Amino acid sequence: MKQVVEFFEKLLDMSDWPSRWKCGTWTDFHGWLYIISDLLVWSAYFTIPFIIIKYISKRHDARFIRLYFLFAGFILACGATHFFDAVTFWFPVYRINALVRAITGIISWITIFYIIKVLPMAFTLRSSAELEAEVEQRKKAEEKFRNLLEGAPDPIVIVNEEGLIQLVNAQTVKMFGYTRNEMVNQKVCMLMPMLMPMRLEVLEQIKSADQQGDGSSHISIKEELMGTRNTGEVFPVEVCLSPLITEEGLWLSAAIRDISKMKQMERTIREANANLERKVKQRTAELESKNKELEQFAYVASHDLQEPLQTTSGFVQLLRKQYHGRLDPTADQYIDYVVQSSGRMKTLIKDLLDYSRIGRGNESRQVDCNVLVQEVLADLHNVIVENGVYIKTSPLPMLYNAYATELKSLFQNLVSNSIKFRKPGITPVIHIDAKQTNGFWQFSVKDNGIGIEDQYQERIFVIFQRLHNRSIYDGSGIGLAHSKKIAELHGGKIWVQSEPGVGSTFYFTIAEN
Ligand code: ADP
Questions:
Q1: What distance in Å separates the CA atoms of residue 462 and residue 471, rounded to the nearest whole number?
Q2: 487 Cα–ligand 1 center, Å
Q3: Domains assigned to the chain
Q4: What is the whole-number distance in angstroms between the Cα of residue 498 and the centre of ligand 1?
Q5: Atom of ligand 1 at shortest range from CA of 466
Q6: DSSP 126
Q7: Which strand (E) or helix (H) includes residue 488?
Q8: Which among 41, 241, 242, 375 counts the fewest CB atoms within 10 Å?
């Protein structure tokens, strides 16, 4: 320690040694060869660091800057040892010389350690041949991209983040009428004013996708905008905007399609639709009025026919009462036929009158279908018991806008038909159910009766249409026509699903409100 302190105290002290010239025997040639060689090495070592620092200051992209500085320091220190070797020929500064060598040694080892540390990284650097190959590859990729751009069937405009046009293809020139030079580096709003806000929307989406770590490759926005040609003509376009990651940063590619023809077609279709709707409305109104007229006619006819029929029937009955057995047997038989027929005619006319009266004068109101169906079943109590019918009823809804009398008659028709058309030899089972579907209540009355063949499943809803002879099944063929009119009165419809020999399910819908 004492020596160290003494070393630094006497750092500049040269009294301990003679100068080098006086140390040993030097010939001039030997001494100057030593001195000049040392100075040459020193001057060269002194210049190299400046060159290195100049290089670094010019190459902003240079990597391993610290290594360059260490290297510069190391060479400078090496040079300094040679300089002091030459100096000692006149000034024996051996202490400074030793200190400079110590510093050189330290810098040399720091440099070595640093080189070892950065060596793996240095190995990853590409060689100039590799770099050239990469540049070549990029050139090819760029060319390919440009070819693709040019070959695209639609106009494509590539803009940078600020919305300045960077690239356009031939289709864009054709569509908008500007030359490439007139478009490149101009704001894209010159072609489509609303693309600027659309661009912001995409950028916003990219930002949030990046934040969520989703990646932005899937992002694309499609919108209908207006384009402006160089003539000032404005036309509708559909634009699909998506991000394009490039060397120059984030760009956006806008694929454009002229949709003038499509819009024109849409307009034509809209007009045609409106026209059709108008015509349908007109036709419906005409049909409704015709229907009303017919209903009115049926009502008046059946109403007015009742009276002469009543008279005819009354007198024929009188005739039979007073002259039965007094005329010949054929006459008696003829009178019987007339009585029967006029009776049937009365029934038909009454049914027709009832049919034309459906919905007339009645007010719609709140109806609890559970209560209503119980009333129907009570009315049919005798026939239910007589035929040993098993009836199952699911919970039914409350209707807020229904015609109670008509609805009751609908259920009555369906239930009594299910009993009437039961299958002999088995217990008739009827299930009444309801469910909600798309703003309607859908009711169903299911039986295990004789069923109906496919070809008759629509016909049975037509007035006076029957499938069986009156001698087998009694009836006038108006019940289902009635039911259809009642379902329609409630904004719904009626239909049947049936399998002969298995049973039928009659469905009808009632609008919920
Ligand atoms: P009607 O019962 O007076 O004959 P409808 O209009 O009620 O008249 O029925 C028309 C026809 O539909 C019936 O004659 C019958 O053939 C058939 N039908 C109706 N309901 C059923 C049913 N539940 N099962 C089998 N057939 C039926």
A1: 21
A2: 17
A3: 2-123 (no CATH), 149-258 (3.30.450.20), 268-337 (no CATH), 362-511 (3.30.565.10)
A4: 12
A5: 14
A6: P
A7: helix 479-489
A8: 375
